[in-house]
Amino acid sequence: MNENDCLLSVKQLEKRYGPHIGCQDVSFDLYPGEVMGIVGESGSGKSTLLNCMAGHLKPDTGEVVFNTRTEGLRDTVTMSEPERRLLSRTDWAFIHQHARDGLRMGVSAGGNVGERMMAVGARHYGDIRRTAEDWLERVEIDTSRIDDRPATFSGGMQQRLQIARNLVTQPRLIFMDEPTGGLDVSVQARLLDLLRSLVRDMNLSVIIVTHDLAVVRLLADRLMVMKSGQVVEQGLTDQVLDDPQHAYTQLLVSSVLHV
Amino acid sequence: MNTIIQVSNVSKTFTLHNQGSAEIAVLNNVDLSVSAGECIALTGPSGAGKSTLMRLIYGNYKAQSGAIKINDVDLVSAEARDIIRVRRESLGYVSQFLRVLPRVPALTVVAEPLRAVGVPEDDALERAANLLTELNIPENLWSLSPTTFSGGEQQRVNIARGFAHPYPALLLDEPTASLDPVNREVVLQLIRSAKARGAAIVGIFHDAEARARVCDRTVDVDNFTVANSA
Lengths: 259, 230
Prior knowledge:
By secondary structure, chain A is an alpha/beta fold. Chain A has helices spanning 46-53, 81-89, 99-102, 109-119, 125-138, 155-167, 185-202, 213-219, 237-242, 247-254, and strands at 8-17, 20-30, 35-39, 61-68, 72-75, 92-95, 173-177, 205-209, 222-227, 230-236. In chain A, a hairpin with a 3-residue loop joins strand 4 and strand 5.
């Protein structure tokens, strides 16, 4: 595939919780190297949408078509569970808000990175350890901590370890759920800088859910604004933030406190 | 002449949904074209819509009608990713204020537009170093984040970043404001060199002498304001 082939195509996605709408009528195309932000208040359906796309929730209707390396376009909603699981170990990655949800807390830092490699067939211990060391360096974790458990790491270090664990298998699409939430601002800035350079160097496509407009301004090319399960506005990030068209987006943007 | 920036029949009204749906009509039927090697200045009183027009040309504001073409791409109808590509490859913008990620060193900030178009790191950093030297940013600041710099230093980093990649189209919002005479000369020289290599430039200059020295013609934005064009 080349740059002009869409990597992910979401069509008419809908998820209901009983009579309540989780998300509805969501459609968009994502291209290689694109970073798309999804913003909206709590309960707007952004996490439901992310989980439906990443295969953690089964949508009621709609398609999530991914351009796979070997078989081209495949609807991941209807593919078999083992196929979807293989995809989430290889071409997809998911960064959780709480690093402990994405890490194995009882396994060493190096083991956390190595485990993902072994899941896709790496067997040579020396290679695995070298690659793990290389990734710890890339996410700015001192390699002398390789044998320590993540439980002994700070929140920011745990989040960087989660990123290393997810990116070691060279995925093409990363789902992120509030990756900087709960971290203090100086740690956030460092993480954003790191994510930005990784996105550029690896030509990653990213879908990032957050309620932090500053995060999407710095990281996302495109922005989707959700309210009550529906997309009310989408477009170029700075255009949506600086010239919002929808009443809800205007309210969201004007409610941000500036320091 | 080779037209690089072509604005046709563009209008802009802001609707403030949360303030009684107030409608603020700013620009009406703007027509403007800028050729390669040409620098035009937007003039008009405060509030006439100079910055609005510049932001429309950058795709930062959404035009309600008309077309804004940078070479052959119409930013009004283009997809987000196409606008991003145009900005990366063809359309530079030096805003009045530097917006950067905290913690990223000034040298990296300036090299970034070159890295984004695939220039190897060493070459990008060398070009960035040359620009920072030209703009008299002391070398001991290069490895520091410009968020801690003085206002004038930040503006010069912003200018260095805007001139790092040879964009065919360049938007300059008050590039000489708050600069000392020495650095003002450097910026005017950068603008002249950009024109000489064929860049089409749109600028806002409150500095009348600077405007007279680099601009080929002025466009009075007041002619497009809704009150005057109705």
